[in-house]
Amino acid sequence: MADDNQIANRIVNTHQFEAWNGYEGRHWAEHQSRYDALNDPANAPLLDAARLRDTDSVLDIGCGNGRLTRLAARTAHRAVGVDLSTPMLERARRTAAEEQLTNVTHIQADAQVHPFEPASFDVALSRFGIMFFADPVAAFTNIGRALRPSGRLAFVCPQSLDRMDQSTIFKAVDEHVPLPDFSERTETGPAAFADPERTTRVLTGAGFEQVTITPLKVSQRWGPDATDAADFLFGWGPMRHWLRDATPESVDRARQAAADAFRPYATDDGVRLTARYWLATATWPDPPPTERA
Ligand SMILES: C[S@@+](CC[C@H](N)C(=O)[O-])C[C@H]1O[C@@H](n2cnc3c(N)ncnc32)[C@H](O)[C@@H]1O
User: pLDDT tens digits for 45-57?
Assistant: First the structure.
């Protein structure tokens, strides 16, 4: 594997490269099963929408610790995970080896610009890995070129925070340390594709056709109890970033407030919050855009 300096030379999303190779990526790698417990409810609808066949070559964009790549590989001919993060890719490679999957590979690269072999994949998938591109039209154009004519794209991304129980927790934290205004539109980050009209514009601008966007409502397991869920939330990269200038006392008060806010969501099966996602699908045209031009 190339070292970080060689890889950094081929990255355009440098801020994301730093974040996912810093404490944010390390937290995801160290808490692999926690993040999968949160995000696994998206797997079945996403894989159903991708309609995988045993002959398919699959690209998993922003594969992280690689859960979706490995699930895809159990049906498809081969699955390739692409990601920026060294610690998360280490996890992904190790887990694929532990699961004795021989048709999984991983690439450390920026999916926005990586020179994938043209028309080499049947399906591009992503579970929350496509919201961080500085130039999403360029990124999806690059991903489209990696697809065969009539190739499928399917991904899940979050709806806006105010539609989720998580907003209650953030409001409680915000009483003690100011958090960003989540109602403001952001071009990159978790809510980048919260607006389906923007998603459609980006995908059609990149050359995709037959865009569909459907809502998903899922129950996310945040942890065994409210205190544990709050501790986990306070280790999450964006939260650490927002709290970096706060005093230790106010962070303690905010963490306590978060635990109190999680408590009403406690069930016999741990703390469960309702989350809402968009499931997007699209098709790369046949003939592809460059050949039609
Ligand atoms: C929210 S995490 C999701 C990880 C994984 N798909 C999952 O569901 O567990 C986002 C992932 O996207 C990756 N990522 C962000 N920008 C990327 C880019 N330009 N190219 C490749 N990966 C990227 C990050 O490194 C991170 O692993």
Answer: 999 999 999 999 9
